[in-house]
């Protein structure tokens, strides 16, 4: 065999191997559209699984590493899935898988509002299935569902509001650093990390928290039809296991995703088989209901697996949150 013939055969072999090789992307392209993926079951009627996982924000998420990837925010990704489920007449009901400690006040409210709009416009029922944690803002958005299910070990509750503001003035004093702030009004730099807050500033922030939290509690009372005794217990903002949440009326049943799917079928009036689907940017082998990813990578957490409070700052900016995050303070905090 001549040298040129050997080169030609090697070239053909490389092309064939390249065509057969699986496509692997270390840095996935999140401009790829969400596509319907079959999870289980058969039939014309569909039950759509929509996942809300991780901290709830309107900010795009960036992965860490040399080649960082920007991914859609939790709000954007969830709303995109709602639009797909709402525009498909074959989708008869939605099972919302919630695994989140909460997030910003605005983002939590946006998702609640979008879910209520989905129900109103499409007349399709929603059943929430809580996983590890569905606390604070994770519970807030769950209030939009027709039914709420939790696993026996789900942590939920934490119905409350918190203002988070990192403090760096002590460190600056030690380093001999300072800052000049020129402001137009006495409250213009309220919550500034560069100085201690004054008593009247703390009072003003507390009033804002109380107002935001009043809306949260009002939604709980209205949507869950709680009596005053149960509402008073919920207003303590404690985290609860599923059993106590069931007793207080915060959830409707204790079970797993299969029971949530069965309830969704019942609410939709489906008597026969139904196809369970999800919307993902990546096709997964052996896909099932426990895959909470829409793309190749799981979401980053606020805390980035670190217990050092200074590392919280880039990922937890100053603001108001419906969030259960005990890592924020070594002492007891109001949530």
UniProtKB/TrEMBL annotation:
SUPFAM superfamilies, per database record: ClpP/crotonase
InterPro entries associated with the record: ClpP/crotonase-like_dom_sf, Pept_S49_SppA, Peptidase_S49, S49_SppA_C
GO molecular function annotations of the record: serine-type peptidase activity
Signal peptide interval: none
A Gene Ontology biological process term: proteolysis
The Peptidase S49 domain, residue ranges: 122-270
Highest taxon of source: Bacteria
UniProtKB keywords: Hydrolase, Protease, Serine protease
Family statement: Belongs to the peptidase S49 family.
Protein's recorded name: Protease-4
């Amino acid at each position: 065999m001549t040298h040129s013939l050997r080169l030609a055969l090697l070239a053909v072999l490389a092309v064939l191997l390249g065509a057969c090789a699986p496509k692997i992307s270390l840095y996935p392209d999140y401009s790829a559209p969400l596509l319907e993926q079959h999870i289980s079951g058969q039939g014309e009627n569909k039950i759509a699984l929509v996942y809300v996982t991780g901290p709830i924000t309107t900010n795009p998420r960036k992965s860490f590493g040399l080649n960082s990837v920007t991914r859609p925010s939790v709000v954007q990704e969830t709303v995109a899935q709602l639009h797909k489920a709402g525009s498909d007449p074959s989708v008869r009901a939605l099972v919302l898988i919630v695994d989140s400690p909460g997030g910003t006040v605005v983002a939590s409210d946006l998702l609640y509002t979008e879910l209520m709009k989905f129900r109103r416009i499409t007349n399709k029922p929603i059943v929430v299935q809580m996983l590890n944690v569905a606390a604070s803002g994770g519970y807030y958005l769950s209030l939009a569902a027709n039914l709420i299910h939790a696993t026996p070990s789900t942590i939920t509750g934490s119905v409350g509001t918190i203002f988070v503001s990192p403090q760096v003035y002590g460190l600056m004093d030690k380093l001999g650093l300072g800052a000049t702030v020129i402001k137009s009004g006495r409250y213009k730099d309220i919550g500034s990390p560069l100085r201690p807050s004054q008593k009247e500033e703390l009072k003003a922030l507390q009033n804002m928290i109380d107002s935001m939290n009043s809306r949260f509690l009002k939604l709980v009372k209205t949507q869950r039809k709680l009596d005053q005794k149960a509402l008073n217990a919920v207003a303590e903002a404690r985290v609860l296991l599923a059993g106590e949440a069931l007793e207080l009326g915060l959830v409707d049943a204790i079970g797993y995703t299969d029971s949530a799917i069965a309830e969704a079928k019942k609410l939709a009036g489906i008597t026969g088989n139904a196809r369970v689907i999800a919307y993902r940017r990546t096709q997964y082998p052996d896909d099932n209901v426990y895959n909470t990813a829409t793309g190749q990578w799981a979401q980053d957490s606020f805390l980035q697996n670190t217990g050092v409070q200074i590392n919280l700052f880039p990922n937890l900016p100053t603001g108001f949150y419906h969030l259960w995050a005990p890592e924020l303070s070594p002492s007891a905090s109001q949530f």
